[in-house]
Design a protein that fits this description.
439 residues, alpha/beta, Rossmann fold, 9-stranded mixed β-sheet, 6-stranded parallel β-sheet
């Protein structure tokens, strides 16, 4: 995996050095661009200048420490945002947009940052391009964000500063690769000069075959939500077919979905039966699409059905354990090899099992890095798989833990394992393993 193509350029700034911003800054710097990074948290600013190999373990981002080390000469952490803006020609803004109660995204952090950027631009003679990478709801750019910049700067977008919306198309754990080798890139246009500049920026740095989709900012706002909702629809559909196969003698969901995936109209990506979707992006983009549809008097039937199906899927999995009193759950992150538990389907499974009267024991090799605020207090965390197998009659394998070196190939015959991850789908050595979706 390579960083962005080597291409020194005018100085860049990255505003927000969290789980997405820090890898972006490292990637841009390793490609040869001078990068000024700002975050109000001094700990995050310190991380920008740290080349400790443990960075990969802190953020669980493949290649992060390497990119930071390779780009060290080009990376500068600054103590105030104005310094970053004045020192750069293009600013990438990656700040939180928390979900509101109705599912739409809060713009409080974006507005605050853009107000500060605008104030700085009042005294900057050169043109400046602001690229918003954070996900926002439809019409946010035109109705709120650009007006904030114009009021604070005293300038008009397209005259003195430019603005583009280009949300990140990445997955936690592979952010470096996602920025360097995306399937495609968005250029959400507000003014022509800014879109020309960002289009040229991507053309110079991304692999030559990378499609760049230039369209209005409003179209990109909708496209980002539509993309993730389409993925959740495929996941929900796959799991529904998994349950149908699970209850139909001689049916195998892997055969069914494997055939469907060969149809070029469908494709095989995200067409796998397994745990429900979770994490920091898919559930909230699903809720945001519902809110966006409602805001223009359209019934959000489809995204609401997808969310409901996702929860029903986890409940149906929990029902498999009904004959057993002591149940284990192996793997607690929202996906394999991740310490992120936000909206984790495995956490939801634990909680539903408790509600159904089971004694639940859980194990994950990354447990000491996880936030268990949403985990039911009666779930008992154990320190090893061997300990878990001593305590349960059956267990759910929710993720492929082989890469962590923690998966036991020879677990006890007296423990029934429900493999939701399909880790053992083609392994016939284990007669006491039940593969979800294979009756």
């Amino acid at each position: 995996m390579e960083a962005l193509k080597k291409h020194p350029t005018d100085s860049l700034s990255v505003i927000g050095l969290g789980k997405v911003g820090l890898p972006l800054a490292a990637n841009l710097a390793s490609a040869g661009s001078p990068v000024f990074g700002y975050d109000p948290d001094p700990v995050r600013r310190d991380l920008l200048s740290s080349h400790d190999p443990q960075q990969d373990e802190i953020f669980y981002e493949n290649g992060l420490s390497h990119a930071l080390k390779e780009g060290a000469v080009n990376l500068t952490a600054v103590d105030n945002m104005a310094e970053a803006i004045l020192a750069s020609a293009i600013s990438f803004v990656i700040v939180p947009t928390p979900s509101l109660q109705n599912g739409s995204f809060s713009l409080s952090f974006v507005e605050s940052v853009c107000s500060e950027i605008g104030k700085t631009l009042r005294s900057k003679a050169e043109d400046h391009l602001i690229v918003l990478v954070s996900t926002v709801s439809p019409a946010s750019v035109a109705d709120t964000i650009v007006p904030v910049l114009e009021r604070a700067s005293g300038k008009t977008c397209g005259k003195g500063f430019s603005f583009c919306y280009s949300p990140a198309l990445i997955a936690l754990g592979d952010v470096i690769k996602g920025f360097a080798e995306p399937d495609f890139a968005f250029v959400g246009e507000v003014d022509e000069n800014g879109a020309d500049q960002l289009n040229a920026f991507y053309s110079d740095r991304l692999p030559p075959e990378t499609p760049i989709h230039r369209m209005s900012a409003e179209s990109v706002e909708i496209a980002k939500l539509a993309l993730n909702n389409f993925l959740t629809m495929k996941i929900g559909f796959s799991n529904l077919i998994g349950h149908l196969c699970d209850r139909t003698p001689n049916a195998d969901v892997h055969d069914v979905l494997g055939a469907l995936g060969n149809d070029t109209r469908i494709g095989g990506k995200f067409l796998n039966a397994g745990m429900g979707f979770g994490g920091p992006c898919l559930p909230r983009d699903n809720a945001a699409l519902s809110a966006s549809l409602s805001s223009v008097d359209l019934e959000p039937y489809l995204p609401e059905a997808i969310a409901r199906s996702n929860m029903d899927h986890t409940t149906r999995l929990a029902m498999i354990a009904d004959p057993h009193r002591n149940v284990g759950v192996i793997g607690l992150g929202y996906k394999a090899a991740s310490p992120v538990t936000l909206d984790s389907a495995a956490i939801a499974l634990c909680n539903i099992l408790i509600e159904r009267g089971r004694n639940v024991y859980a194990f994950d090799p990354l447990a000491d890095k996880m936030d268990f605020g949403s985990l039911h207090e009666q779930v008992i965390l154990v320190s090893s798989l061997s300990k878990l197998f001593e305590l349960v009659e059956m267990a759910f394998l929710t993720a492929d833990l082989q890469s962590s070196g923690e998966f036991a190939e020879n677990f006890p015959d007296e423990v029934m394992l429900i493999d939701v991850s399909s880790r053992l789908a083609n392994d016939e050595r284990h007669s006491h393993v039940r593969i979800f979706g294979k009756s």
